[in-house]
Amino acid sequence: MAQVSEQQARQLVAQYQDFQRNAEMIQDQMNMVRNTLAGCESTLRTVTGLKEAATNDVESVIPVGSGCFVHAEIKNFSKVIVSVGAGANIEMSVEDAIGFLNDRKGKLEKMLQDLNTSLTNIVQQMQSIEAVLNQN
């Protein structure tokens, strides 16, 4: 392969740095999606567990904020208030809430998969640039 001129090398280095910044942004996004997914899975387990235990009064520990929790007894577990985004909440049946959470989980998993694909493509492009620059 032909040698790369100094100007082309500078352009490749700049392009490599852009890819590097993009890769870091994607990794940050992936971490946020993973955290959101973990929260969604935890909520899904909790709601499902409460549904299964709802035949009797259920004792639980309820978060009240700032890392504080209270012991509570849940006497009626037929409705769940679900955040649907933009500060809006909707009251749903337990079954609908579980379906909504499963749908949200699926979308988050798909988002994580898409981000991973993008990151893989960027890494491959970075490796191509490295190969060209290492030939000089």
TrEMBL record:
Molecular function via GO: unfolded protein binding
Cellular component terms (Gene Ontology): cytoplasm; prefoldin complex
UniProt keywords, alphabetically: Chaperone, Coiled coil, Cytoplasm
GO biological process, one term: protein folding
Coiled-coil regions, chain positions: 2-36
Subcellular location per the Swiss-Prot or TrEMBL entry: Cytoplasm
Signal sequence segment: none
Function: Molecular chaperone capable of stabilizing a range of proteins. Seems to fulfill an ATP-independent, HSP70-like function in archaeal de novo protein folding.
Family note: Belongs to the prefoldin subunit alpha family.
Assembly and binders: Heterohexamer of two alpha and four beta subunits.
HAMAP family the record matches: PfdA
UniProt name for this protein: Prefoldin subunit alpha
Lineage per the UniProt record: Archaea, Methanobacteriati, Methanobacteriota, Stenosarchaea group, Methanomicrobia
